[in-house]
Specification:
The chain is of the alpha/beta class. It has one domain (19-147, 168-290): UDP-N-acetylmuramoyl-L-alanine:D-glutamate ligase, CATH 3.40.1190.20. It is built from 12 helices and 8 strands. Strand 7 and strand 8 (202-205) form a beta hairpin. The radius of gyration is 17 Å and the shape is globular.
């Protein structure tokens, strides 16, 4: 099966043509993405959003987060560098997004590594019902276990060490489905293959390159791209949310694939820079040839 055929017919929920339409809409709408994120990811996240066609706003002060949610299209919350004031801001922003019916995306960085991280992510999910949760396999497994414990239902083991994943994405698919069902959201697990699930349906996205594992905060930047895509339609429409997440994953992965083909790329540092350039060169034809959905 050719890549073009695979991308067009590999999954009934999404196609390369739909992905191209969403990317064009993103570039046209230039959504304002409010990012409450960690110090490590701010630079790469902001530059990635700009390169793909969105507008970033790194707004996390407790005194202004609620006001800014009213201005932004989606909200992104990333718990990478936690502190008590930031946790307060996260709760205020998520509550405002829920009140206004705006999509918000949670990146539970390091969930399972410490009780503070796990509790913060769990409280945000149960209190404010994110549109999307995106994490690596270990984070998703740990969060699913914590949520199930809070809801007093059975969960599989989800041990997590540090902020890097110690499990493969397919190992986390069952916990991801359970998490999606219990929390009425879409869950994205990223790894060698990426999975998007609402608990029933699954879209597999197979774009990307191993160099991404060597670029600090690449996953954080990806979550911001997910937020930018999700806000392009109705956040209560699960089909739209799943399709948007799959398209964001594919576009992000294709940018990495294009970057490493450049002769000037010698390692993760130069790959990171060339990824930013690659976003503008992603066309309908590129997506048709390279997008891998199943």
């Amino acid at each position: 099966m050719s890549q073009s055929t695979q991308s067009s017919g590999g999954n009934k929920l999404v196609s390369s043509d739909q992905c191209a339409s969403l990317l064009q809409k993103l570039r046209s709408d230039c959504p304002l993405v409010q990012c409450i994120t960690n110090y490590v990811s701010m630079d790469i996240m902001a530059n990635t959003l700009l390169a793909i066609g969105a507008s970033p706003a790194m707004v996390h002060a407790e005194e202004e987060v609620e006001e800014f949610v009213s201005l932004a299209s989606p909200l992104l919350i990333n718990i990478g560098t936690l502190s008590t004031p930031w946790i307060t801001s996260m709760h205020k922003a998520a509550a405002k997004a829920q009140e206004l019916g705006k999509p918000w995306v949670l990146d539970p960085v390091g969930a399972g590594a410490t009780s503070l991280r796990t509790k913060t992510a769990t409280d945000l999910v149960l209190s404010y019902k994110p549109t999307v949760i995106r994490g690596n396999p270990s984070e998703i497994m740990a969060l699913a276990e914590s949520i199930c414990k809070e809801l007093d239902v059975q969960a599989s083991d989800g041990a997590q060490k540090g902020v890097d994943s110690s499990h493969s994405s397919d190992h986390a698919l069952a916990p991801a489905k359970a998490l999606a069902i219990k929390c009425h959201c879409v869950v994205v697990v990223t790894g060698k293959d990426d999975f998007v699930t609402d608990g029933c349906s699954v879209i597999t996205v197979s774009n990307g390159h191993r160099v991404l594992t060597k670029i600090t905060a690449a996953g954080c930047a990806l979550t911001a791209v997910l937020a930018a895509f999700v806000c392009l339609g109705d956040p209560t429409d699960v089909t739209h949310v799943m399709k948007s997440c799959a398209c964001a994953l594919s576009v992000f992965g294709i940018a990495a694939e294009l970057a490493v083909k450049d002769p000037a790329v010698k390692g993760p540092g130069s790959a990171r820079l060339h990824m930013l350039d690659a976003y503008s060169s992603i066309s309908i034809e590129t997506l048709s040839q390279l997008a891998k959905f199943s």
